[in-house]
């Protein structure tokens, strides 16, 4: 029997060898998996090289898994021990056989999630293997083998992140969009919050994985006596919100450091109630992962008034700089810059200049006097909109753009928004870099980052408060930030609300307002009268705001919400009358930056509009959401493009397109790659969902090289021998 087992094992080993994985045996298990969101160290890198420049053109679909749900996906799955763990648009967690796509188990909470959910976390000790899943405002611990909630974790298998903050936890509004980081026996988490007040503080918290007990908290809005407290008004810690980590974090396990990028403080665009630099908003913070104590930080935007959140987890990289080998951390930004720091001490590797910025002309506001700019690398997105880079797609579109541009104030970066003329924000509020993150080649130190390169505008308006009807007043202070004063939205990403009653019932509007949907956060912290009024105002298309039925009173807050003197008038996307960007292409790019030297290796447009390509206008680039991965096989894989639904592979050295395929929906997600039984796979979650007027779904598609005749023969022969010898092995 032993000889038979050894013989079969030898056959399978020979078959695996024919797959050409060229990976050292001691690294094989680790490198065959993709066990964490963003890969090891947030690098988006894989040492697998079976799929390479020579054969990538032969990729074919290996399997698909359709969740049979609409709503879209932004998820990157994790793969451990030949099992793929993913999440559906409604936030059901599932496990698949990673070689076949066959479902092994599924876990649902019974609450349909409507927010982006970008992935899961994995922890194991001995036979105890757990999936940590952030779903809405909860973190669940699931048995990785069965998908069942582990009752000893928290309260019957979950912890409620609304707790351990301030005030009545039931009235807090927050959700988890990115998976937490696992360090030893801890899960370290952030969350997404409303971008207007009221909003909770963005504390970074670590919980024990076995019990769900809170181990430590780091206050991103410092309390009295804490470092950074003097960069806020003295009572800001009691009322201000945001400065949160929604984009994910990166762990340096060797040093025991977790790198935390944060977003802006609430409210995003008018900060009269938070005068000061506002540490630790818009900062990269290095925390001791064991204790939560600050090791170093760098504030990338001071007193943010432009929603310049740090959009993704940073990447760990080792570079050669000034004759030294340095472990570094790279952070990409919405305004198109890469900041590169020494990982241990936070010293910048390239000089950073503090340039004077313009003062605000809005009463009560006070802009920071300077903002930091790295001198290298050069920005990967354009920095100032001028008349000579407006669209020339058609003469009519160009003439229209010229007339519109004359209405704007366009003076480059960090120009405070005003109340009379729209201010250009370029690149727009969605970047530059976005939440998909960057990939770093561990062999070369080259960073690959995709970017949006379209312009947007912003304007402030004086808040009229109770001079308006209650519903309209609340709508203007809370909802018009995205949907605009006239409820027109900014399609396709931000839908119009003028006809929402044709798409949703009143009860559905209540649910959306409480829990949020897509990019929209929940507003359960609004007091009942305001909540009732704004629901009725929105559902009626802005016609009325009569009292709402009392049975919904329990879902709303009880404290009056603060009303700022000025409010954001809405995201103005600079699109021409045919709804294409009103700036000249490229509208989206993929960039290769050598972090050793700070120089660019290549830069190419990313994405197309199919109808423009058909008419001969190709390689325009498009807005893109989701990130790249890079492999030892010489490839950069990326989907991300919003309008053409393509998944592409590029030569990482030159940017040459080597392979592309069309997905069932836009792949607004970051792919992953792994190997099972000697066969390498690349998987992408295709769901669309960014554009409300386009189809959405939830399909995972895995690609692999076709198995050759000899490989199929080896595999079939191996299985034949195994089945033939099974009775003897059993005996």
Write the layout of secondary structure elements.
Elements: H1 2-17, H2 28-32, E1 45-46, E2 60-66, E3 78-80, E4 83-87, E5 93-97, E6 103-107, E7 121-125, E8 128-135, E9 138-143, E10 158-160, E11 181-183, E12 186-189, E13 204-208, E14 214-218, H3 236-239, E15 241-242, E16 250-252, E17 257-261, E18 265-266, E19 283-288, E20 294-299, E21 315-321, E22 324-332, E23 338-342, E24 352-356, E25 370-374, H4 395-405, E26 423-425, E27 439-440, E28 446-452, E29 456-458, E30 460-462, H5 470-483, H6 506-515, H7 528-539, E31 566-568, E32 572-573, E33 588-594, E34 599-605, H8 610-614, E35 629-631, E36 635-638, E37 646-651, E38 657-662, E39 672-676, E40 679-686, E41 699-704, H9 709-730
Parallel strand pairs: 1-35
Antiparallel strand pairs: 2-41, 3-4, 4-5, 5-6, 7-8, 8-9, 9-10, 11-12, 12-13, 13-14, 15-18, 16-17, 17-19, 19-20, 21-22, 22-23, 24-25, 26-29, 27-28, 28-33, 29-32, 30-31, 33-34, 35-36, 36-37, 37-38, 39-40, 40-41
């Amino acid at each position: 029997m032993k000889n038979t087992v050894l013989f079969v094992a030898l056959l399978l080993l020979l078959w695996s060898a024919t797959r050409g994985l060229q990976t050292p045996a001691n690294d094989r298990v680790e490198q065959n998996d993709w066990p964490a969101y963003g890969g090891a160290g947030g690098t988006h890198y894989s040492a697998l090289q079976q799929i390479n420049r020579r054969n990538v053109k032969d990729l074919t679909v290996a399997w698909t898994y359709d969740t049979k749900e609409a709503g879209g996906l932004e998820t990157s799955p994790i793969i451990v021990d030949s099992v793929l763990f993913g999440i559906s648009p409604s936030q059901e967690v599932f496990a698949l056989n990673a070689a076949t796509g066959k479902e092994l188990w599924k876990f649902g909470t019974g609450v349909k999630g409507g927010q982006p959910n970008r992935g899961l976390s994995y922890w194991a000790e001995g036979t105890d293997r757990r999936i940590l899943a952030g779903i809405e405002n909860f973190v669940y611990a699931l048995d990785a083998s069965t998908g069942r909630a582990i009752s000893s974790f928290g309260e019957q298998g979950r912890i409620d992140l609304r707790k351990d903050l301030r005030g009545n936890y039931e009235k807090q509004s927050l959700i988890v969009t990115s998976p937490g980081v696992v360090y030893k026996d801890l899960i370290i988490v952030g969350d997404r919050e409303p971008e207007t007040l009221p909003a909770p503080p963005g504390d970074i918290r670590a919980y024990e994985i076995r019990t769900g007990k809170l181990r430590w908290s780091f206050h991103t809005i410092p309390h009295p006596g804490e470092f950074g407290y003097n960069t806020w008004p003295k009572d800001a810690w009691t009322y201000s919100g945001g400065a949160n980590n929604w984009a994910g974090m990166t762990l340096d396990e060797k040093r025991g450091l977790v790198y935390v990028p944060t977003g802006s403080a609430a409210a995003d665009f008018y900060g009269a109630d938070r005068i000061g630099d506002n540490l630790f908003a818009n900062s990269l913070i290095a925390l001791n992962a064991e204790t939560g104590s600050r090791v170093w930080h760098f504030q990338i935007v001071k007193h943010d008034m432009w929603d310049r959140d740090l959009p993704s987890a940073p990447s760990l990289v080792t570079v050669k700089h000034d004759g030294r080998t340095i472990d570094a951390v790279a952070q990409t930004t919405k305004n198109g810059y890469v900041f590169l720091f020494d990982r241990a001490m936070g010293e910048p590797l390239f000089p950073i200049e503090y340039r004077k910025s313009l003062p605000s002309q809005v009463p009560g506001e006070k802009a920071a006097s300077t903002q930091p700019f790295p001198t290298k690398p050069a920005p990967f997105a354009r920095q100032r909109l001028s008349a000579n880079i407006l669209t020339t797609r058609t003469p009519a579109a160009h003439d229209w753009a010229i007339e519109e541009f004359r209405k704007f104030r366009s003076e480059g970066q960090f120009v405070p928004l005003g109340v009379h003329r729209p201010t250009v924000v370029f690149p727009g509020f969605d970047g530059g870099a976005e939440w998909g993150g960057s990939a770093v080649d561990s062999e070369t130190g080259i960073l690959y980052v995709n970017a949006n390169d379209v312009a947007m505008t912003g304007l402030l308006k004086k808040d009229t408060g109770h001079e308006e009807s209650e519903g309209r007043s609340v709508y203007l202070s809370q909802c018009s930030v995205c949907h605009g004063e006239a409820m027109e939205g900014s399609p396709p990403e931000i839908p119009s609300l003028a006809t929402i009653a044709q798409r949703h019932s009143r009860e559905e509007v209540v649910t959306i307002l409480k829990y949020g949907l897509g990019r929209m956060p929940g507003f359960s912290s609004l007091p009942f009268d305001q909540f009732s009024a704004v629901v009725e105002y929105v559902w009626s298309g802005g016609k009325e705001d009569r009292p709402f039925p009392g049975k919904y009173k329990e879902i709303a807050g009880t404290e009056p919400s603060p009303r700022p003197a000025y409010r954001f008038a809405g995201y103005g996307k600079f699109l021409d009358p045919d709804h294409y960007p009103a700036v000249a292409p490229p509208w989206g790019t993929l960039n290769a930056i050598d972090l050793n030297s700070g120089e660019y290796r290549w830069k190419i447009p990313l994405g197309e509009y199919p109808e423009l390509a058909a008419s001969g206008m190709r390689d325009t680039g498009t807005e893109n959401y989701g990130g790249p991965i890079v492999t030892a096989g010489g490839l950069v894989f990326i989907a991300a493009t919003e309008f053409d639904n393509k998944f592409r592979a590029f030569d990482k050295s030159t940017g040459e397109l080597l392979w592309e395929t069309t997905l069932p929906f836009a792949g607004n997600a970051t792919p992953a790659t792994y190997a099972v039984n000697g066969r390498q796979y690349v998987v992408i979650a295709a769901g669309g969902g960014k554009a409300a007027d386009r189809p959405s779904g939830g399909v995972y598609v895995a690609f692999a090289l076709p198995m050759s005749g000899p490989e199929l023969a080896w595999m079939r022969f191996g299985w034949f021998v195994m089945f033939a010898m099974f009775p003897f092995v059993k005996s």
